[in-house]
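Session log. Operator J.P. requested a structure for one protein chain; no other inputs attached. Running the standard single-chain path with token output.
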Amino acid sequence: MTNQTIISLLNYICNEARNSVQASFGLMALCPTLAPNPAWQVCIENSKYGADRLLRCIDDIRELLSTERPLFDPVEEFDVTLCLGETIELLNLASGDRASRLILPAATRPVPGWQHRRAVEQVLMRVLDAVSKLGRKGEALVTVVAAIDGDGVQIEIVPANPNIAVRVADWLNSDPDHVNFEDTDEVLYGVATLVAGKRIRALGGTAEFVPDARAPMALVVTLPWQANIEGDGPSEGSQQDETGLSVLVAEDSDESFLLTGILLQKESVWRARDGLEAVDMMKTRRFDVVLMDVHMPGMDGYKAIRSMRVWETQTGNARTPIVVLSSDDLDTQTRSAAQSGCSGFLRKPLNHHDLLDLLDRLKAVRTVSA
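Structure written below.
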């Protein structure tokens, strides 16, 4: 059986499993007698988590078997330190006290550079998740510095147990045909790490175990900078502030978008005219925040947010802040926003001060203390 045949079978299994899971959980959520029961809701969430893990593993196995070069988003300039910090925060929140805590020193300096940002995020998510889950306790120190020649970045990970660094480095550099997992519990993040290794090589990078008698044994991931040859997005001659945010506004009303655009004139703004277009744009570009109108033709704002969150979970991407824009009553807005997975909401018509306060808070989170 060829790899292509196996990939085709995995595609079929994954699609059928995903459709079945979504239908099953949809019916479970509609059960009138059990829906209000907190224990029932916990059962549904745990089952969803297990189903997501299964589907992600199938997707990773499919990618491992593929002989095609991974497709990456356009190269863009971004701060690797910020990207790393967001990933660490997300993993620590998700793991709780069931895994090693990942630590990024507060004084870490920004390391700006050119790379395929989303691909870098996915690599970091997989590698750090493996280090954290294998550790199970203690702390893993993560540092990031510019490469010695200035043409790339080095990310050093020092796990609580040096054997973890050895094992993860082996996975990152292994041929999938020759990998044996010591424990079945390691399969999920072991396969994800193999995929990360494949992507690191596609990005032109390396991963190695660094034994040093003078310092803790570490795993070091090195990524080179890429040239910005795509040339899409706002032009360099635009009037946006250099510290401006990349903002996606999902809004079908031209009048409302013009008003929002005036308030966002110092930011880099993209527009989607409906929920489906917003989801598609999010899959091809990294945004600092998404401003999502609720009432749009076709896919509405809440459905679009749920689709975005599902895609982030399936691909291992960091969660993008998504803020709902709505004139609905406060109770409806709060309940619907929480159910869809949004980060917050603003009332329409937009209040100038409320929007500026949101932007300032996002910029403050993005800034790393020198």
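Operator note: Residues 272 and 281 are 8 Å apart (CA to CA).
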